[in-house]
Design goal:
Distance between the termini: 35 Å
Shape: globular
Order of helices and strands: HEEHHHEHEHEEHEEEHEE
Number of domains: 1
Oligomer: single chain
Helix content: 25-40%
Number of strands: 11
Number of helices: 8
Radius of gyration: 17 Å
Structural class: alpha/beta
Largest sheet: 7 strands, mixed
CATH topology: Rossmann fold
Amino acid sequence: MGLAYYLGRRQGGPKRSLHQAADYAELIAGDNGLARRASADLTKTVLPNGKWLILMEEPIAESRLRKTIESYDLRSEHYAARFEDADLRTLRQYFLESLPSRNGWVLDAGCGAGRDCEALMRSGVRVVGCDLSYGLLKIAHSRLPSTPLIQSDIRALPFRSMSFSGVWSCASLVHLSAGQAARALAEFWRVLKPGGALFVTVRHGTGEWREACRYMGERWFHRYSEADMRNALDASGYEIMNVTTEVGTIGGDWVNVYARRSR
């Protein structure tokens, strides 16, 4: 059916939707109060323990995230080719072994041009991909025409709670502030089934930096330490399985995190 289901509004553009595949409908939230609330109030996030986390830095962070997505949309082909050859086989295998079942759905949260969606599917799992960049999603659709792909903010996922056996988030949180990342981790926890596995990888370090070019727009990045990630996962109620810092296949040091929703 092509792009099995598409949800969301492009900045300044119309809402777009295509046919919904029958085997995918089970995941879509009909009345997702948490997602609606997160979308309506981007100065707060609710953690699994029911407490609200107030975020004061959001206006600047939201502006930077919007500019980053605009850059990906502007030069989607460039970014897709740039990261196509990243070798994540070892990380992916550990994640697959952590899944409670190979029969459940896996969410590629921040799927970009579909590189990891394709690799996970080849490993025998059912995959749904989501990303905020429509340009990258179009490339993903061209390579994976039968894979469900959604334009969605990972901080307000349009899925029913406890829908996924695993969430794979490769370099997606690098464009989010600490507060934004906390919201995304809370959403990952919500959509994971009890026992579901989470993989997250982020750039190691502290602070943020900006890449800018006349023809590419600008992208903003945030660095995280192992302690940052442990604290964020603890706040969202995860059972932490493993946290390591390693040199990434595209250069730089990366914090690789494996966790589980234990309840």
